[in-house]
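Colleagues,

For the teaching module next term, I've prepared a clean inverse folding example: a structure given as C-alpha cells, and then the sequence designed for it. I'd like students to try predicting residues themselves before seeing the answer, so please don't circulate the second half yet.
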C-alpha cells in the first residue's frame, strides 16, 4: 500500500535498513517524492539531492557508479546515529569529488521539492546559502517502511535539522599610535531583559523604555591575540559590550564599555593570521589604550636642563631592561626638554646614568615608582653635579689568561670597566669605559679628572655599568681578578694604575695563546757597533717561502742607536700543546724580502730565520745584523735599499755597490782634460791663421 507521510530526520529514516533485508516488495515503476521543509531563514538557500544507490528486491541497494568508492556500507546502517554519520561523510565526499546532484532552491514557502524519484537511497545536502542557515545533510530512502511495518511511504516530507548562523564581531586593540596590542583581557556581556523583571543579586539593574535589564556575562576571559584581535562568532541577535578587565603591560586600563549590536548573521575568515569579514554582517569594534608615560628631567643643581647625558632604565632589581637582542630597551640621551618614556609597566624602576656630559660627574641611580592609573602623572628628576677640574688620572690595564696564567690573545673582543664609590661596587661614579682587545692579550682604559685623595674602587662591568663578579664569552666562563687589589687613592700629581686580569676556565672561540717574538736589530761597521739614523724593516711569516705575512710590517727606527729591539705578539693557537713555526726576514719599506740579489750597502745576516713556539715556549728572539764595510761611507737616506720583489729566502746579503772608482773625482779629471784639449785646439788654429 502506497502512503504519504512525514518524518523528521532523526525519528524514522533509519528504517531504511529494513529495505536492505527484503522486508517489503518494491515496484521499480513506482515513483516517489521528497519535500524538505525549512525555517523561514532558509528561503533562497540551495539544496542538492544526490542518488546514492538504486534499490531492487533482488539485489537490494546498489551504489551508483559515482558513489562506488565512497566507503559506506549500507547494510551496516542500523540506527539513526549511523545514518546521520553516513550522511555527513557522503556530504563531504560529494563536495570533494565535485559530484553533480539535482539542485533545488528553497521557495518563499520555505520548502524545496524533488519529484519523480525512483526507488533508492538519496542524500540531501546544502550547497549554497550558508550565511542564512546551515542545514544538516540527510540520507533519505525512497520508499521507507512505516513504523508498524504495514506499508511503504513513497512521498516523503521531512524537516532537516538546522542551525541559524549567528552574528560575528571583530574587536581590534591598539595603542594611541595604532600599534596592535595583545594580551588585553575582556569580559563579554549581553543586554538581558529578565522575563520576571528580577535581576540577579550579583548584577546591576538598569532600565530603559523596554523595561528592566542587566548586563549578563557570557565570556569572562577573552584575550586579544598577537594581532590585537578578539573574534567572536555564532552570537545570537542582541546588544553586547566588551569591558576591559586587564590592560596589556605598559598600558592604562580602558574602563569604557564598548557596545556593539548583532542584527544579522555574519561569518569571519582568517587570512595569514588576520581575521576578516567573510560573509554577512560582521560588527567591528576599535578599542584604544593609552600607554603609560614617564617624563625624565635631567637638570643641574640650579634646576637648569642638562643635555647630553646617556641614561638607561633598570628594573626593581637594578638590572638593565633588555630587548630581545640583548640591547638596552630604554636607552636615551637627554636634551634641554624632558624625555618621555612610553610603555613601561607599573612597578619600581631606576634611572641610571651611563655617561655624564663633559663637565659633570656621573649621578647616582634614582629610584621611582610608576603607576598605570589613568589620572597619574609619572615624573622623575636626576641631578648632575658640576665636576671640578682635577689632575687625578688612573690607567686600568686588562690582560687575558687561562687558569695556568698563560696569556691569551683575541682577534676582537670588547669589555668594560668603571669606577665605584664603594667596595661592593654598586655605586658607580664614572662613565663606563670600553676595553677593546684586538689581536692581543691586553688593553687599557684611562680615567681622568679624578679627585685627589678620594678612594676609587675599580670593577669590571657589562656595557651598562653593572658590576660583574664573573662573565661568559661564547658560553665560556671567565672571572675578573685584580692582582694588586681594586682600591686606589690618588695623591697630587700621581698617575695611578691598576691591573685587571680575566681568567678563562675554557678557551673561547677566537681566543689563542699568546707568544712574544722579539726582533733585535744590530748595526755594525766592519766589526764595530755603529750608531745610525737609518730606518729598517722586518716581517714575520707563517711559511718558509715568505708569502704569508703575519701581522703588520715591523718598523725599526734606529734613531742614532746601535741596537734596537721590538717585541710583537704572535698567536700560538688554542691548543696549549701545539707548536707554531714563524719565519723572520728583513724587507724594504714595501715588504719585499731582501735576497742575495738585492743591491744593498750592507750585508744582512740573521742568527736564525725561523722559531718554533708553544704555550710552554712562548718567548723567542731573532737577531738581524746589518754590517756596513769600513771603507764605504753610509748614504744619508731613510731607506738604504733598492726596492726588490720578494724572491724567497732571507739569509746573508753581501755588499753590491758596483764599480769602486770615485765617480766625482773621475768626472773632475775628465772635465779638466777636455778644457786643456779645447785650449790646445784653439792655440793651433790661431797659429795657423798668423802663418797665413
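(Answer key — instructors only)
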Amino acid at each position: 500500500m502506497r502512503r504519504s507521510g512525514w518524518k523528521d530526520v532523526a525519528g524514522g529514516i533509519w528504517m531504511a535498513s529494513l529495505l536492505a533485508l527484503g522486508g517489503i516488495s518494491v515496484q521499480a515503476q513506482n515513483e516517489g517524492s521528497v519535500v524538505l521543509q525549512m525555517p523561514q531563514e532558509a528561503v533562497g538557500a540551495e539544496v542538492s539531492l544526490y542518488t546514492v544507490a538504486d534499490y531492487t528486491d533482488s539485489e537490494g541497494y546498489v551504489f551508483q557508479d559515482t558513489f562506488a568508492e565512497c566507503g559506506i556500507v549500507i547494510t551496516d546502517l542500523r540506527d539513526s546515529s549511523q545514518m546521520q554519520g553516513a550522511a555527513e561523510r557522503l556530504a563531504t565526499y560529494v563536495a570533494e569529488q565535485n559530484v553533480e546532484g539535482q539542485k533545488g532552491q528553497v521557495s518563499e514557502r520555505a520548502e524545496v521539492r524533488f519529484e519523480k524519484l525512483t526507488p533508492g537511497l538519496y542524500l540531501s545536502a546544502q550547497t549554497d546559502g550558508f550565511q542564512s542557515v546551515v542545514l544538516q545533510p540527510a540520507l533519505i530512502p525512497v520508499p521507507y517502511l512505516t513504523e508498524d511495518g504495514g506499508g511503504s511511504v513513497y512521498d516523503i516530507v521531512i524537516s532537516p535539522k538546522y542551525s541559524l548562523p549567528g552574528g560575528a564581531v571583530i574587536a581590534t586593540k591598539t595603542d594611541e599610535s595604532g600599534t596592535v596590542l595583545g594580551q588585553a583581557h575582556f569580559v563579554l556581556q549581553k543586554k538581558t531583559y529578565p522575563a520576571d523583571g528580577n535581576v540577579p543579586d550579583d548584577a546591576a539593574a538598569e532600565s530603559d523604555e523596554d523595561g528592566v535589564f542587566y548586563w549578563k556575562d557570557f565570556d569572562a576571559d577573552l584575550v586579544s591575540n598577537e594581532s590585537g584581535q578578539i573574534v567572536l562568532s555564532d552570537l545570537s541577535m542582541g546588544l553586547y559590550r566588551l569591558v576591559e578587565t586587564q590592560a596589556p603591560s605598559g598600558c592604562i586600563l580602558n574602563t569604557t564599555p564598548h557596545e556593539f549590536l548583532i542584527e544579522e548573521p555574519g561569518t569571519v575568515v582568517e587570512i595569514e593570521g588576520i581575521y576578516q569579514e567573510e560573509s554577512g554582517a560582521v560588527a567591528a569594534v576599535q578599542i584604544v589604550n593609552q600607554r603609560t608615560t614617564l617624563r625624565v628631567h635631567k637638570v643641574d643643581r640650579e634646576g637648569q636642563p642638562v643635555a647630553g647625558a646617556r641614561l638607561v632604565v633598570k628594573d626593581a632589581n637594578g638590572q638593565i631592561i633588555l630587548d630581545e637582542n640583548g640591547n638596552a630597551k630604554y636607552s636615551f640621551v637627554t636634551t634641554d626638554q624632558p624625555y618621555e618614556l612610553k610603555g613601561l609597566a607599573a612597578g619600581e624602576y631606576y634611572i641610571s646614568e651611563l655617561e655624564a656630559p663633559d663637565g659633570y660627574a656621573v649621578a647616582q641611580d634614582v629610584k621611582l615608582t610608576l603607576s598605570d592609573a589613568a589620572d597619574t602623572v609619572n615624573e622623575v628628576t636626576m641631578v648632575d653635579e658640576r665636576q671640578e677640574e682635577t689632575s687625578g688620572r688612573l690607567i686600568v690595564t686588562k690582560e687575558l689568561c687561562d687558569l695556568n696564567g698563560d696569556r691569551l690573545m683575541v682577534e676582537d673582543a670588547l669589555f668594560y670597566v668603571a669606577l665605584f664609590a664603594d667596595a661592593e661596587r654598586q655605586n658607580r661614579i664614572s662613565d663606563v669605559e670600553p676595553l677593546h682587545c684586538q689581536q692581543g692579550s691586553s688593553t687599557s682604559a684611562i680615567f681622568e679628572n679624578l679627585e685627589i685623595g678620594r678612594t676609587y674602587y675599580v670593577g669590571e662591568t657589562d656595557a651598562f655599568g653593572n658590576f660583574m663578579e664573573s662573565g661568559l664569552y661564547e658560553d665560556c666562563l671567565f672571572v675578573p681578578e685584580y692582582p694588586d687589589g681594586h682600591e686606589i687613592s690618588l695623591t697630587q700629581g700621581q698617575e695611578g694604575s691598576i691591573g685587571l686580569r680575566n681568567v678563562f676556565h675554557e678557551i673561547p672561540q677566537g681566543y689563542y695563546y699568546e707568544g712574544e717574538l722579539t726582533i733585535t736589530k744590530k748595526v755594525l761597521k766592519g766589526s764595530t757597533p755603529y750608531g745610525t739614523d737609518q730606518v729598517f724593516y722586518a716581517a714575520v711569516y707563517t711559511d718558509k717561502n715568505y708569502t704569508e705575512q703575519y701581522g703588520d710590517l715591523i718598523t725599526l727606527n734606529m734613531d742614532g742607536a746601535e741596537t734596537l729591539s721590538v717585541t710583537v705578539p704572535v698567536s700560538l693557537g688554542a691548543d696549549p700543546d701545539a707548536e707554531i713555526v714563524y719565519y723572520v726576514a728583513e724587507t724594504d719599506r714595501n715588504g719585499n724580502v731582501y735576497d742575495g740579489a738585492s743591491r744593498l750597502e750592507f750585508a744582512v745576516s740573521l742568527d736564525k730565520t725561523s722559531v718554533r713556539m708553544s704555550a710552554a715556549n712562548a718567548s723567542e728572539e731573532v737577531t738581524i745584523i746589518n754590517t756596513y764595510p769600513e771603507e764605504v761611507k753610509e748614504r744619508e737616506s731613510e731607506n738604504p735599499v733598492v726596492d726588490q720583489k720578494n724572491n724567497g729566502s732571507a739569509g746573508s746579503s753581501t755588499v753590491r755597490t758596483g764599480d769602486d772608482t770615485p765617480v766625482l773625482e773621475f768626472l773632475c779629471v775628465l772635465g779638466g782634460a777636455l778644457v786643456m784639449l779645447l785650449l790646445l785646439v784653439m792655440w793651433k788654429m790661431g797659429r795657423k791663421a798668423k802663418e797665413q
